[in-house]
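Recall the central idea of this unit: under ordinary conditions, the amino acid sequence of a chain determines the structure it adopts. In this exercise we apply that idea directly, starting from the sequence alone.
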Amino acid sequence: MEDPPLWARPAEVCGWPTREIVGGNLGYKVRLPEDWKDEPQRQTNDWGDEEVFRGAAEIECFTVEMLRAPVTAPPGQWVDAVIAVSGFPIPALVGDREGVPRLLEWEDLGLSLALADRFEADEVSLHKGLARFPRASSGLARLYILSVRRHEVVWKCTLSLATACLPGMPEEVVAANDHVRAGATFGYLRLLSDRWRFDS
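Accordingly, the structure predicted from this sequence is:
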């Protein structure tokens, strides 16, 4: 695997304009497609806070979660735990609809040293996959997850993009159609502060 992968490198994509979003509550900055929602849905649970930006298609979203409790385990284990509990790595895409989306492809890409340097983090873990949404008008979505641990704070950032690339298509086709669009978002992701704590 290239480090960082193509989908985490800055990219400008013709016909895919983006705008900058600054999440002051959770300490991040990112670029999102211009036709996505301006304001996130926000929720707090026992673990931490989450912001969810919805895309043009119902299966598209960008989410940021910030863990509320101190964590020393590898950040990727959080992704595994979410799948074990909800059956899907991005719960915001499961919601109340009937039937959990089905993972057609799923890869744990391990740790990225290059991204750990970029985010001034202790560890950064990467996952990507492809999912089918049986009840959505656009049935396939490419999934990207970047989990970052800096000191006692963990961010889990996810991106879901509708795709026309079917399972098993050549990687160069997926890269040209999906990974570069992800790079137009994840390539510009910055984590601004780790001052947030559970008692703030």
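The domain at 26-89+102-169+186-191 is CATH 3.40.1000 (Protein Transport Mog1p; Chain A).
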